[in-house]
Amino acid sequence: MNGDSSQLNSQELARYSRQILLDEIGANGQERLKSAKVLVVGAGGLGSPAAMYLAAAGVGQLGIADFDKVELHNLQRQLLHGTADVDTPKTLSAEKRLQAINPYVSIVLHENGVQADNAVELFKAYDIIVDGTDNFPTRYLNNDASFFARKPLVYGSIFKFEGQVSLFNASYEAPCYRCLFPEPPPPGSVPNCGEAGVLGALCGIIGSMQALEAIKVITGAGESLAASLLIIDTLSMHTRKLRIRKDPQCPLCSPHASISSIQADRCRNQCETNTIETMPSTYPIEVDIQEAKNLLDNQNAILIDVREILELGICQIENSKNIPMNKIPQRLEELPKEGPLLIQCHHGGRSLQVVHYLRQNGFENAINMGGGIEAWALNHDSSMQRY
Asked: Residue 274: exposed, middle, or buried by beta-carbon count in 10 A (0-12, 13-18, 19+)?
């Protein structure tokens, strides 16, 4: 981290004594924490526990970037804020709570959040970035900015009862978020927490893991999640740790990179629908799992899996062909225009967007497999690994 070492006073030694007792932390590690500058982007479900535990651990300077105000529905999971803080800027509410947790921490507020025109310079002022955001444009912006600023990025995300944590841009050799997901999904293809729901306790788990990962990076304790993606399913309490390799064709961090700067419109999607009307079709736009199986068994339907390559390693339907969603526009010639063309993803959202795109481009035979491979596992193949 930065080279300045700050000595601990007697009050700080007493406050942090339990973690100083850990061999992997010790007094030296605690001084590194005191010297560190950490930026938490987003003071919401993930940013709340991350910021609270980083403050409690004694990080010397804690930046909070968020442009939003506290709303009543935030309080179920965003524990930086209380009932009296509704309609208050989240940065102000966060500052009050964090100072109450630890008055020795310097809190720096960025009330306008992270924007394309300030992200790189803002990130350069910190040692490590914690991404507590919940939308794809900001997630890609944070990744790209941390890459250009040469700062490690602690990533966290949640969906229903599942959470993910990783460390990106940890070094020149380490992968970035785009190595895992090169382009964002189309708008509306992945439901946000307001549509899919979110459990506050899961936010606490993942946000705490992000804080722990940042502490490990600062102190040098243990093995980081660089080049790994930790996945936890809290309904079963199963965890998996997947290896992530640096993508030699990554649009951001590879020698063949096409992204050379931050752009406000960078997070667009190639499969975004346009104004061309969908052509009439004798095929339904969506079928359920039983109907999909009938098409595969009796009508020689072609099944296209539009998930990312990493997802295929978890589970895949036999005889399906993988064309990741963001590659569909470049690989239309591989798709037949005769006979049923089934499109499948994880839950059915991405695939539905692809079906609309294909129909707009002359594929009247494109059909969405409703519920995706998750519904296939639940209704047809109970032995299939779910995620």
From this structure: exposed
